[in-house]
Amino acid sequence: MSRDNSSFAELSSVQQDLLQELRQNSARAVIFHQFISEKLGLNATDHKCLDYLNHAGPVTAGQLAQLTGLTTGAVTSVIDRLEQTGYVVRDKDPNDRRRVVVKPVPEGSARISPMFQSVMQSTLQIISQYTDQELQLILNFIKQCNEMTLAEINKLKKETEKGLSEK
Questions:
Q1: Strand partners for 92
Q2: What is the number of other CB atoms lying within 10 angstroms of the CB of residue 149?
Q3: In degrees rounded to 5, what are phi and psi of residue 11?
Q4: Domain ranges, ordered by start, for the chain
Q5: Which CATH architecture has domain 13-129?
Q6: pLDDT tens digits, the chain, 167 residues: what are they?
Q7: In degrees to the nearest 10, what's the CA dihedral of 83, 51, 60, 141?
Q8: What GO molecular function terms would the record report (predicted)?
Q9: Helix (H/G/I), strand (E/B), else coil: 54
Q10: What are 88's strand-pairing partners?
């Protein structure tokens, strides 16, 4: 990420520090999840899609594409790989037998959970230092960051699709 030094310099010291820490947090999160992915025999995208599935429960490929911002074609490939490695199964949608839902396999979750116990304990220790009011402010900030990131993903996806259609 390049930064426009003129606009960066106009920020307060705490704003500059926050942007630097967010950047470092993002990079470390990517590296952390890459290591987890490798231990699970997955690539990082498959691992994060599996994380969505483990939290959202059974979803269709289209719903997973909406959750992640990935194309439906990319999601189909992810589901294929996760199914081959035993982390998910495809099943008929109980509400619409023409559709397929993707379900995480409990044994797969059982393999993943121990890898996150330490980070979960550390996170709980950190958040215990804040009041509920402070946590609500942090939560609001993170939600807005997540919405912004998804909007940026969708913008990049549209630009890529537009570029491909112009070829």
A1: 100
A2: 12
A3: -75, 155
A4: 13-129
A5: Orthogonal Bundle (1.10)
A6: 455 566 888 999 999 999 999 999 999 999 999 999 999 889 999 999 999 999 888 999 999 998 888 888 999 999 999 999 999 999 988 888 888 899 999 998 888 889 899 999 999 999 999 999 999 999 999 999 999 998 998 898 888 877 777 76
A7: -160
A8: DNA binding; DNA-binding transcription factor activity
A9: helix
A10: 104
